Amino acid sequence: MKTLTSGDIANYLDVTQRTVIRWINSGQLKGFKLPGRGNNRIQVVDFIGFLKENGMPIPDQLQQEVNSISANVLLIDDEPAVIRAMTRALKPLNQKIYSASDGFHAGLLLQQLQPAIVVLDLNMPGMDGFSVIRHIRDEQKNSTIRILVVSALADQQLDHAIAIGADAVLSKPFSNAQLRKTISEWLDPTVGI
Length: 193
Known about the structure:
Keywords: Phosphoprotein. 46% of the residues lie in helices and 17% in strands.
């Protein structure tokens, strides 16, 4: 996915680069540092989300970029019926959807596909969902992957999933509309403006 520098964002918003860096350091704007020099990079979708959250207009130059985003979505669940239900729910979004039935297969697909979004269950045999989240978050190249947990586990375990790196959680049984809304907002933060 396309990224922007802190200087790019400063130019778009007519602020200083130092202001942008403060937003990143405080967590207001999601960004990551490149290895070595430590220069900041911000995904276009995260910048658009930041603009939306703060009631700022989206620059015309970025609107075309946002409209052209096409991303892989990886579904990870050991129940085939749940995979089928999620696939049907997400089909209207016109994204490439892949699935894995366990953490090991998911690890292989993560390497091959480099998905933008991972939707996973926590309770799976072998490598469980918590291990998958840790695996994703342990690698810098996966820092931009959004993780949605869909699980029937207790709230305390869902909170733990957020604490170790998941971006959001949905309880099973999940609402197709809520699943679709969450994923579509991550794919296009301008939805609902």
